[in-house]
Amino acid sequence: MRDSLVFYRSFSKAIKRLPEADQLKALWAIIDYGLDGTEPEEDGLYMVAYEMAKPQIDANIKRKINGSKGGRPSETNGYEKEKPMVIETENHRLSETETNGYEVEKPNVNENVNVKENNKRDICAPDDVQDPEEVNTEPADGNLGPIAKAANALFEELWAAYPQKRGKGSVSDLDKKKLLKIGREHMMRAMNRYIAECNDQGRYYKNGSTFFHSGYIDYLDDNYTKPAEKPKPQAQTKNRFQNFENRGYDYDSAIWADIRRQHGKVEGSSVAAGTSGPDAGRT
Predict the structure, then answer these.
(1) How many CB atoms lie within 10 A of CB 4?
(2) Which residues pair with 95 in a beta bridge?
(3) pLDDT tens readout for residues 220-271
(4) Which of 161, 164, 168 is nearest to 190 (CA)?
(5) What is the pTM of this model?
(6) In this structure, how many other beta carbons lie within 10 angstroms of the beta carbon of residue 14?
(7) 59-71 burial by CB neighbour count: b if 16+ within 10 A, else e?
(8) How many Cβ atoms sit within 10 Å of the Cβ of residue 174?
């Protein structure tokens, strides 16, 4: 059981990004682990904030335990340091070590004291401990930590909803963590605004790698400005010369009927001319 714990601003930011139903659970999970070492038994979304805070709490506890031991003991390798042999004469003293005409420099005792005091401040003072946002807390063995897992999960969800799926491998881990810091709801709104704007204006979508690198910034809540709507064309006033299309005429049929009518008149004239005259009725 401990009397205190260091609660960082980054813990608060992570908790605020959770749904309201999980915020209180995440807060008490961090407090219970930091003071009593009790880990939560129930699983849920609030565990994202808890898993982010847990490595930093463990590091602070380890620092305080090491500081209470009084520092690292000096290394003797199993042998005591041999004192220099001093030869005294009537006029002066000589050390076993040659000085070559120069005075041997004595160690600065105050410097060692200052180093110990600085170490105590680093261990005991909460303000001197680095914020976990500024420290790379990912394991060195290549396994993903809780923050990286949450960032990858959010990116996969956003990528599945984005229409132009090109350049997925170009999206860096840093870009994914920026998306996680912004939050799922904000990113979904920004993406939907961009898609709707492209559809309204008939524009092509950017590649996914471009949009999730920096293309979403102008469409976030604090930056988005809705484009002005285009003025609708005014309806023209119809008059008697503009209503031909509304009469339902079949222009093709009318043209062919006129051609047949003209052709019939020509044939009728030829027949009438052939039956008149002195040769009419001959075979």
Answers:
(1) 10
(2) 86
(3) 999 998 887 767 666 666 555 555 555 566 777 888 888 888 877 655 555 5
(4) 161
(5) 0.36
(6) 26
(7) bbeeeeeeeeeee
(8) 9
pLDDT score for 79: 53
For residue 278, the tally of other CB atoms under 10 A from its CB is: 6
For residues 48 and 22, the answer to whether their CB atoms sit within 8 Å is no
- Record the tokens describing residue 173, joined without a space: 């881990």
- Rounded to whole angstroms, the Cα distance separating 111 from 108 reads 6
CB 49 within 8 A of CB 15: yes
Helix axes 184-201, 146-161, angle to 10 degrees: 20
Q: Give the pLDDT confidence score for residue 266 in this predicted structure.
A: 58
- Each residue's pLDDT tens digit, 27-50: 998 998 888 888 888 888 888 888
Residues in the chain, pLDDT under 50: 94-98, 120-141, 275-277, 280-283
CA nearest to 146, candidates 258, 248, 43: 43
Tokens of 106: 């004595």
The answer to whether 256 and 250 are in contact (CB under 8 A) is no
Q: At what angle do helices 47-68 and 20-36 cross, to 10 degrees?
A: 20
